Each structure stands twice: as structure tokens, then as C-alpha cells.
Amino acid sequence: MSEPLLPEATATLRALLGGSDAVSSALLAQIPHTRVVRRCGCGCATVDLEVDRTAAAPAPSHDNPVVDTGYTTPPAGVLVFTEDGYLSLLEIYSVSDEPITAWPDPRFIELADVRVR
């Protein structure tokens, strides 16, 4: 399986990686070259990502997850992971028992809580 990122997932990544630091900038530049290679088996919106490494440079060294933030509608969180400097996972998790099946409206992401590591 390999398919383009949904516009909603792209908007979520752009909102989370909107900082001016070198890691965020490099990861933002990877988004146009990123595809979904697997979806989570539980039915949530989480996706494994693969970047065309011939088309985009890796991000500088950084911790994982790169971004760990919450949002309020519904209460949940989003994590962005990388592997070898490339986007590898966009994870969404619920604080309830119900899986989150859609990406949040970027307006509801609490950017003050975004931690680029």
C-alpha cells in the first residue's frame, strides 16, 4: 500500500511543524515527498509514512517524538515521529476508549503545547 497523504493529515503536519527551527523546517520540506504506507489496524487515523529520500534531505539530529501535543475537540493527542531524520509516523491517540478516526482541525491544536524536541 502506498497512497498520498490526505489533505487533513497534511494540514495537521503543517500545523505541528510550523516552528522556525531547523528540524521543523526540514520536516516541512519533506511533506510533499511523503506517502502513507500503512494505516493503524485499530481503525484510528494513525499512519506510517515514507519519504522519498532522493527528493528531500533529512532533518538535523533530534529526539523522538519530534512533536507531542494535545488538542481539545475531542480530547486527544498527536505525535510526529521520524526515522533517520525522515517523517515516519503521524500518530493520533484518544484519551477515551473511542479511536479517533479523523485528523483534527488545525484550529483546535493547542500550539502552545507543541514541543519540538
The strands making up the biggest β-sheet line up spatially as 1-2-3-6-5-4
* DSSP E strands, number: 6
Shape summary? globular
Largest sheet: 6 strands, antiparallel
In words, what does this structure look like?
This protein is α+β, with helices and mostly antiparallel strands. The protein has one domain (3-113). It has two helices and six strands, in the order βααβββββ. The protein has a six-stranded antiparallel beta sheet, with helices on one face. A hairpin with a 4-residue loop joins β4 (67-71) and β5 (76-83). The radius of gyration is 13 Å and the shape is globular. The termini are far apart. 32% of the residues are buried. The model has no long low-confidence stretch (mean pLDDT 88).
